[in-house]
Amino acid sequence: MNNETLLKNLRNVPDFPIKGIQFKDVSTLFKDAECLRIMVEELYEIYKDKGITKVVGIESRGFVVGAALAFRLGAGFVMCRKPGKLPAETRKATYMKEYGKDTIEIHTDAITENDVVLLHDDLLATGGSMKAAYNLVKEFNPKKVYINFIIELTIEGLNGRAVFDDDTEITTLIKI
Ligand code: AMP
To answer: What global pTM score does this model have?
Structure first.
């Protein structure tokens, strides 16, 4: 069930960044101390017994709760970034967006075969960007990969979960 405090505090910005998009602005959840606490603690309760060793956050809104959760879980934090931002050797994944292609990168020494990984981002829409990050993380052959979003968009026929295999474990805190 949706957390009413999170739902109440989430800002919707119509027509951003382009006309027709209802942008879910998580900055209003990040700036509120109680919302930040709820998000981190709810996720901690879900993942505390999973043996997570690395939380991977997707640039940039995935960094905020991702890093706080990593700290809470006693795990490390890894950044999955846009091209050209990471300084050392990287692995890359290119994926199709609505208009054109996009690329994400992760350091080649960021994850090992002994890791249990939790991938985190703020919002699931089509699932394209998380699928690319998931594939990238899988290349490291970690023991297990979990996926989490704060928000899952199911409006207007969106079904981002469909791009993942049925046995992929995905959790979301708010469904809209
Ligand atoms: P997708 O790859 O289609 O699942 O898109 C997810 C990414 O795009 C996330 O990193 C979101 O931050 C961003 N995004 C897509 N649609 C929205 C939206 N309606 N409101 C806020 N962020 C969005």
So the answer is: 0.97
